[in-house]
Design goal:
The complex is a heterodimer of chains A (243) and B (210). Chain A has helices spanning 7-42, 47-78, 91-101, 103-108, 128-145, 194-206, 234-237, and strands at residues 86-90, 112-117, 123-127, 151-158, 162-170, 210-217, 221-229. Chain A has 243 residues and is α+β, with helices and mostly antiparallel strands. In chain A, a hairpin with a 3-residue loop joins strand 4 and strand 5 (162-170). Chain A is globular. In chain A, 39% of the residues are buried. With 210 residues, chain B is an alpha/beta fold. Chain B has helices at 7-17, 32-38, 58-68, 83-92, 104-115, 127-135, 147-156, 162-169, 173-187, 192-201; strands spanning 2-3, 28-29, 46-49, 73-78, 96-99, 120-121. A six-stranded parallel sheet of chain B has the order 2-1-3-4-5-6. Classes of the chains: A alpha+beta (243), B alpha/beta (210). Chains A and B meet through helix 1, helix 2 and strand 6 of A and helix 1, helix 2, helix 4, helix 7 and helix 8 of B.
Chain lengths: 243, 210
């Protein structure tokens, strides 16, 4: 077998993929804003349309801000410069809060979310807002990729040293985005929702855990697996601030 | 039929198309599967597809649509302007490719042209380069691979093992192994060395590859 490439080359590929993914993610709400501003110009006298356009453009602007926040936090986490605020988390309550947060999207697609966890799920130490964000991003990914009227299953388990949360849904994470510059160029091949999945992974790794995606039935069913340490080592909990 | 995973964009496009007397949006879908599920119950002459969907690429959906509704015209509407992507869509059977950043008047023109079974390419796109890409079979034997297999292939020719491929693509190691076996069978190679040799023969190895 040939030797694997140098770490710098691998890192460059990851960065290229992430960049392409971020570009795609940012273009999406901007395209909506452009479309709505054209609708307003085209139908200047339509007050109802103007109201809807303002709402839509606000929504797209908020989405852009959120993506920029995600990008900033991903970068800080990956460089070990995100200041974590570790505190005890009641996991059952955290899960319920995340499910409540996506209730509107769930209702729009007529989805059903079932959450199962043992009676001993208990508490863990973690950065609450960050853990909630990872769970929300994962659940949001499942919602977007699920067909209407299907079921999303959340299973949470307390293992010896980790909390293991699995989100399973019908559907796949997404075909790679084919945006190569040449036929032999793989730099632009981006996983769907690449920034979201990269951020989830970075958050889990900052809590001495990991994030895995598995295709249970390739092309038709996917499980997002998030795990994090019940009590991360102090070195993880107290990352140095930026000099 | 509008197929785009971004609801705000779909609503905006619908608002822009509403005053056009000859255009009626009869259905919307946010995923390829949603569109396929709707097909038996809705009749439409033209599909406007985003190139990037949660569950399929635009080219895969275009091919599937061509099989299910051969008479349906497809207009790809995207922010992506890579000539290779455009060529991929056209090879898959799309009649036109418009950009989301185009003025609405041009998008409406694109819709009308494709509905008349004419070809349409956004003026900003490099027409000659795209036509050359559509005509040529630049991918050679690699063209037999599915998009996912092509991704796995790109990593295997770097000398990566199944575990690393699985991690990079966020798939199970077992799935990566299945892709590896399928790739080798399709390309009639029996080892990683032969795979890399084949990639080299077709100029697919770049700096940083094994």
């Amino acid at each position: 077998m040939p030797n694997p490439p140098a770490p710098s080359a691998q890192s460059s590929v990851v960065d290229d993929n992430l960049l392409a993914s971020v570009l795609h993610d940012l273009r999406t709400p901007l395209a909506a804003m452009l479309m709505w501003q054209q609708a307003v110009r085209q139908q200047a006298g339509d007050a109802d349309l103007q109201g809807r356009a303002i709402d839509a453009m606000c929504g797209a602007a908020c989405e852009t801000v959120r993506l920029l926040d995600d990008l900033r936090d991903f970068t800080l986490l990956r460089r070990g410069r995100f200041e974590l605020h570790m505190a005890p988390l009641e996991l059952e309550r955290e899960l319920a809060a995340v499910v409540a947060q996506v209730a509107v999207q769930v209702q729009k697609k007529s989805l059903t979310i079932t959450a199962n966890h043992g009676p001993d799920l208990g508490a863990a130490i973690g950065d609450g807002p960050l853990i909630r964000r990872a769970l929300t991003l994962a659940l949001d990914t499942a919602i977007q990729s699920s067909p209407p009227a299907s079921v999303i299953q959340i299973e949470a388990k307390r293992l010896a040293h980790t909390i293991d949360i699995r989100i399973s849904y019908r559907g796949r994470l997404g075909a790679a985005i084919a945006e190569p510059r040449r036929a032999d160029d793989d730099r632009g091949r981006v996983p769907y929702r690449g920034l979201a999945t990269a951020l989830i992974r970075a958050i889990m790794e900052s809590h001495a855990g990991n994030f895995r995606v598995s295709e249970d039935h390739p092309g038709s069913a996917t499980t997002l697996g998030l795990s994090f340490a019940i009590a991360p080592a102090p070195a993880v909990a107290a990352l140095p601030n930026e000099p | 039929m509008l197929v785009d995973d971004h609801a705000l964009f779909r609503e905006g496009l619908r608002a822009v198309l509403a005053p056009s007397p000859h255009i009626e949006v009869v259905a919307e879908a946010s995923t390829a599967r949603e569109m396929m599920d709707m097909i038996p119950g809705v009749s439409f002459e033209l599909a406007i597809l985003d190139v990037i969907l949660p569950d399929a690429s635009g080219s895969a959906l275009t091919r599937e649509l061509g099989r299910r509704i051969p008479d349906c015209n497809v207009l790809a509407l995207s922010m992506v302007d890579s000539p290779f992507t455009v060529a991929e869509l056209l090879r898959a059977g799309a009649a036109g490719f418009a950009l989301k950043s185009q003025p609405t008047a041009e998008i409406i023109e694109a819709i009308k042209a494709v509905a008349r079974r004419q070809k349409y390419l956004a003026p900003r796109l490099p027409q000659h380069e795209i036509e050359a890409l559509v005509r040529s079979d630049i991918t050679g034997p690699i063209g037999r691979l599915s998009p996912r297999e092509r991704e796995v292939f790109d990593l295997l020719i770097r000398g990566w093992n199944n575990d690393r491929v699985a991690t990079a693509l966020s798939i199970a190691t077992r799935t990566a192994e299945t892709h590896r076996q399928n790739i080798m069978a399709k390309l009639h190679v029996h080892s990683a060395v032969e795979l890399i040799r084949l990639a080299a023969q077709h100029g697919l190895l770049r700096e940083g590859h094994a």
